[in-house]
Design goal:
292 residues, mainly alpha
Length: 292
């Protein structure tokens, strides 16, 4: 395949691109909201956690781009990233990723607490080595098991305020964990050609579209049920309960449209986009519920 034309772009813009800021914005919501569920953090603590969380996730994303540089070159949606486009060397990218992840570990350990730093670093290693290096290219369960990497932010936020983890924190982890498969499979259904060209065994390519849509449905059913459970042991009240049921109902309806439709392109794109809003609003509802 012919390499893409090298375009001129400021270095700072490529460094920001390496961190995947749009993805991190959601991770920060699922980090900061649990801080307000766990207690009433100071503004300084929130800012240090936000900075450390961004740097850690950004470092993981940069290392991900280093490890995936071969397949990024053959996927249409990733060919313009800094390495395959030729704007940055692979060595520079991994150095940048390791540097900012190291800085994040130091900042979180010194300015927040060691548990917060350890959990953030665990998320980094899980994403880089368990998901990117191992599962992504070896199993259609890559998103199911690898999704745990994206579920660490609630633990990080909780530990930053409480200094420990408890049952509610575990439920927040599980909510993100079970949210990940239907969210990502909605994208995978529409990116099968890209993943096929790259040799990545995503669910639709291995299990088929029908089975993937069925799995999306059952994961979403379980997710919505899971979001209600914390109410039963007093972790949240009626504001969160109403929000979880309303947001979950819309999510279920969207996935059901994917399952029942022969032309699932538009419905699956809708689910992918809505699922981002769903998770953000769900976590905001948790914080609002605790403080009202």
């Amino acid at each position: 395949m012919t390499a893409p034309t090298i375009t001129t772009r400021p270095l700072w813009a490529d460094l920001v691109t390496l961190t995947k800021p749009r993805i991190i914005s959601l991770l920060l919501v699922t980090t900061i909201a649990p801080m307000y569920v766990a207690g009433t953090p100071t503004l300084a603590t929130v800012l240090w956690v936000a900075l450390g969380g961004y740097l850690m996730a950004g470092g993981a994303n940069a290392v991900n781009m280093y490890l995936d540089r071969d397949i990024d070159d053959v996927m249409a949606r990733t060919r313009l990233r800094p390495i395959p486009s030729g704007r940055m060397s692979a060595r520079a990218v991994i150095a940048f990723g390791v540097l900012i992840a190291t800085a994040a570990t130091y900042l979180l350990a010194v300015r927040v607490n060691v548990l917060t730093a350890a959990l953030a670093l665990a998320g980094f290693y899980f994403y880089v080595f368990i998901y990117t290096r191992w599962l992504k290219r070896s199993s259609p369960h890559n998103i199911v098991l690898g999704g745990a990497a994206g579920a660490f932010p609630p633990l990080v936020g909780w530990a930053a305020v409480a200094g420990r983890l408890d049952l509610t924190a575990v439920y927040l982890f599980l909510i993100v964990y079970y949210w990940t498969p239907p969210h990502f499979w909605a994208l995978a259904l529409n990116k099968q050609r890209d993943y096929g060209n790259a040799g990545v065994p995503m669910a639709p390519l291995v299990w088929g579209e029908t089975e993937t849509k069925s799995q999306m449905w059952w994961y979403t059913v379980f997710l919505v049920a899971l979001t209600v459970i914390p109410v039963t042991f007093g972790a949240f009240g009626w504001i969160y309960l109403v929000s979880a049921l309303a947001l979950g109902g819309v999510f279920l309806h969207g996935v059901w449209r994917v399952v029942r439709s022969d032309d699932w392109v538009a419905p699956s794109w809708w689910v992918y986009k809505y699922s981002l809003l769903y998770l953000a609003l769900l976590f905001v509802a948790m914080a609002v519920d605790r403080h009202l």
